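re: the backbone from monday

yeah here it is again, tokenized this time
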């Protein structure tokens, strides 16, 4: 078989294609019930089954929610459920229009999962009333398809990520089908437009499949959508250009839409199975398949009020949120709402107790095959610990602190290489085309880059069999890893530090998801989102100002302490220790910042393990603090480059002001600086005093923005004594050391700060300060003349020094 040919015949399986009377009745009843429950959640606080005429008292005082997309979402859900019943296919449902939350809550309720998880929301009249009252209300649930929604791994409120989450979910998950509903408003976002390329990285032999369903209803909050207004042939050409075989379903007639969508979905599923069967039985030559997708065109707000106050609502943007907004005060609106609700014939859908009738219940698959109950959407249930080799075996030999250089991230690459070997279906590295650049290339010794497009002679480590994920999109890499994590697998997202800000809002949203999941006992903990920032601001001297920015640290620091972790290992052995901890952790955002360039190594492996376990510690070998009383000044540091500058500053002070007592404190776990009541990693008051005293001034050299340290030490004894040097948005194309000079964080600046703030001045301080100023002037002239740093800076180490 040459490639995987897919015909345009919808399906040969007439059972899937043709809805018989029984299945049509089930699907339609379920759909009507879901629509009824959706509207009830938006509007009702009483009279859930309309056992009496609606009155204003039955209406919520605040009407919140989104109706427009919901009937389409429910139609898709109903038909996918039927497909699962007939085929046993494992599937999850990702709603890109995340504001369609009431539709997915209704689906979980009708399947019974919601009541199993939340017993108070029972399948009876009282439970239905609780379902309605809790929606988008104080003490209730959000209006999105959020973490509280059974079956969800995708919140959707921040548009653009449904496909990347879906593709991440099916990687190394061969039996899973991810239904990814893309809203046409969402389709206008940059991340979504870039994520159609996911099929260029999915291998049908070992991965599952994503079925994108582009839901075109031609309306967003206040106007039409781009794709909704394009001619159908233009939309199809666009999607075919991305590599999809497009099946289009359109209309608003019933039961015609049920019949057409059933045929389209059945045909798409059979094409997917044909692709996978060919790939897995050896009759596939490895070329990229043409995967199916569906374009569903249905009216926005379908089956809702056609007109309100003489203005067209259904089929327009006016149905996006709450089509009838004046129900409590406008009798005509109240009458329209009651007529709308009764149009679904709830008396046929719910029995005398308020439970779904047998016809509706029969539509749902059994047990874990229900999409709201799928363990793939509660991935912690499927998570297995990584088989991680002993990271000590990758140690850099350190015979003396600050005497040898190594590329620290290269050792991490070696560790991940062997994690790949030991975990061939549960670990992946995601990196925007920078794996080798970031010195993580050891992974290519055991895996190629994943790539399903054609390859040519001269391509290196590129094949359909590869499992290293490289695509020049931070959004894709970040989102793929989120989907991979949330379905129970492990990995790391590595990127240039400055460009982590491209996907920073994804980091924030994932942190919110993890935080809220901690409040839900039924949500099992998932592998942590591990983010490595390398090619950092301080060493992007050659790339210039655009590549110089440590902003993601600040972003993660704003996350709640339950989920946020920031590590700044100063050398390779600390990096290995930190990485081992992060790979074993659950439900955190672990941010690791470590540059890729050759850097001084300070700690033996045993010392690194102890240092990382404490999170911060005094480096006695670096200072002149004899322990007999408080030091005169404390030099603290967090981050690899600024640690070198701090150690160098301490050595200058030792050599030129030997009577000044200097203590050097290195911080590897940034969160230890926070008070323990504000973060679980916060060091005790006793330990904080042991490191920083309660009164001695601290000159703190920090990798990121100085304000972060002030934020972290807030509430500590005399926090104003911390004087922080860090990145202050001074950058250009220059030399490595000049980056520290421009940001006033160089060794010479630190020495002058120490002199200015020391509790006791010694002879020679003024001369040393003048010398530092002269060194800075000499540096400025030297780099312009020689295009590199001064030798005493460029080649500096502690080797051979007293």
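seq for it, each position gets an aa:
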């Amino acid at each position: 078989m040459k490639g995987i040919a897919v015909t345009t015949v919808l399906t040969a399986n007439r059972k899937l294609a043709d809805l018989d009377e029984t299945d049509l009745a089930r699907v339609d009843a379920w759909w009507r019930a879901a629509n009824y429950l959706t509207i009830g959640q938006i509007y009702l606080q009483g009279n859930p089954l309309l056992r009496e005429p609606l009155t204003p008292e039955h209406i919520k005082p605040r009407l919140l929610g989104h109706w427009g997309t919901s009937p389409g979402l429910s139609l898709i859900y109903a038909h996918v459920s039927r497909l699962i019943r007939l085929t046993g296919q494992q599937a999850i449902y990702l709603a890109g229009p995340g504001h369609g939350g009431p539709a997915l809550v209704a689906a979980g309720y009708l399947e019974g999962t919601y009541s199993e998880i939340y017993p108070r929301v029972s399948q009876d009249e009282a439970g239905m009333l609780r379902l309605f009252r809790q929606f988008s209300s104080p003490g209730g649930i959000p209006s999105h398809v959020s973490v509280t929604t059974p079956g969800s791994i995708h919140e959707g409120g921040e548009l653009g990520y449904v496909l990347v989450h879906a593709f991440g979910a099916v990687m190394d998950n061969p039996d899973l089908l991810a239904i990814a509903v893309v809203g046409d408003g969402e389709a206008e976002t940059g991340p979504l437009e870039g994520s159609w390329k996911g099929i260029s990285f999915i291998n049908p032999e070992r991965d599952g499949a994503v079925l994108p369903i582009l839901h075109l209803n031609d309306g967003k909050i206040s106007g039409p959508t781009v794709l909704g207004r394009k001619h159908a042939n233009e939309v199809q050409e666009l999607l075919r250009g991305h590599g999809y075989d497009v099946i289009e379903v359109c209309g608003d007639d019933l039961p015609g839409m049920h019949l057409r969508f059933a045929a389209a979905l059945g045909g798409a599923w059979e094409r997917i199975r044909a692709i996978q069967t060919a790939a897995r039985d050896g009759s596939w030559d490895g070329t990229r398949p043409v995967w199916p997708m569906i374009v569903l065109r249905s009216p926005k707000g379908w089956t809702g009020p056609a007109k309100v106050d003489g203005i067209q609502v259904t089929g327009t943007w006016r149905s996006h949120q709450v089509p009838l907004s004046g129900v409590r005060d406008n009798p005509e609106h109240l009458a329209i709402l009651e007529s709308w609700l009764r149009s679904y014939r709830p008396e046929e859908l719910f029995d005398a107790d308020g439970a779904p009738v047998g016809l509706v219940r029969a539509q749902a698959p059994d047990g874990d095959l229900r999409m709201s109950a799928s363990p793939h959407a509660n991935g912690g249930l499927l998570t297995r610990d990584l088989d991680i080799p002993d990271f000590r075996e990758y140690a850099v030999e350190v015979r003396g602190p600050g005497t040898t250089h190594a590329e620290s991230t290269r050792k991490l690459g070696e560790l991940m290489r062997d994690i790949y070997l030991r975990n061939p279906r549960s670990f992946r590295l995601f990196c925007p085309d920078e794996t080798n650049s970031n010195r993580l290339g050891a992974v290519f010794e055991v895996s190629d880059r994943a790539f399903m497009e054609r390859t040519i002679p001269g391509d290196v480590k590129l094949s359909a069999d590869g499992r290293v994920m490289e695509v020049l999109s931070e959004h894709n890499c970040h989102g793929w890893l989120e989907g991979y994590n949330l379905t129970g697998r492990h990995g790391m997202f590595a990127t240039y530090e400055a460009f982590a800000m491209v996907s920073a809002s994804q980091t924030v949203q994932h942190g919110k998801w993890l935080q809220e999941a901690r409040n839900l006992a039924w949500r099992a903990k998932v592998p942590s989102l591990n983010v490595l920032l390398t090619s950092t601001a301080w060493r992007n001297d050659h790339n210039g100002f655009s590549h110089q920015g440590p902003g993601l640290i600040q972003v993660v620091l704003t996350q709640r302490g339950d989920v946020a972790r920031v590590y700044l290992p100063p050398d390779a052995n600390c990096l290995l220790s930190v990485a081992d901890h992060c790979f074993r952790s659950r439900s955190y955002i672990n941010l690791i910042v470590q540059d890729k360039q050759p850097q001084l190594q300070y700690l033996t492996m045993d010392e690194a393990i102890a240092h990382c376990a404490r999170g911060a510690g005094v480096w006695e070998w670096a200072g002149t603090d004899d322990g007999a009383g408080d030091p005169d000044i404390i030099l603290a540091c967090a981050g690899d480059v600024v640690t070198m500058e701090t150690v160098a500053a301490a050595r200058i002070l030792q050599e030129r002001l030997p009577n000044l007592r200097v203590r050097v404190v290195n911080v590897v776990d940034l969160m230890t600086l926070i008070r323990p009541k504000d973060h679980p990693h916060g060091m005790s008051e006793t330990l904080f005093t042991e490191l920083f005293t309660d009164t001695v001034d601290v000159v703190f050299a920090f990798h990121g923005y100085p304000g972060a340290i002030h934020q972290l030490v807030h509430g500590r004894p005399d926090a104003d004594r911390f004087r922080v040097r860090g990145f202050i948005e001074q950058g250009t194309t220059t030399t490595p050391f000049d980056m520290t000079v421009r940001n006033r964080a160089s060794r010479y600046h630190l020495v002058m700060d120490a002199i200015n703030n020391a509790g006791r001045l010694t002879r020679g301080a003024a001369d040393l300060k003048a010398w530092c100023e002269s060194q800075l002037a000499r540096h400025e002239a030297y780099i312009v003349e020689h295009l590199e740093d001064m030798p005493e800076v460029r080649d500096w180490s502690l080797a051979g020094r007293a």
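Residues 1-12 have pLDDT under 50 and may be disordered. The chain has 27 helices and 22 strands.
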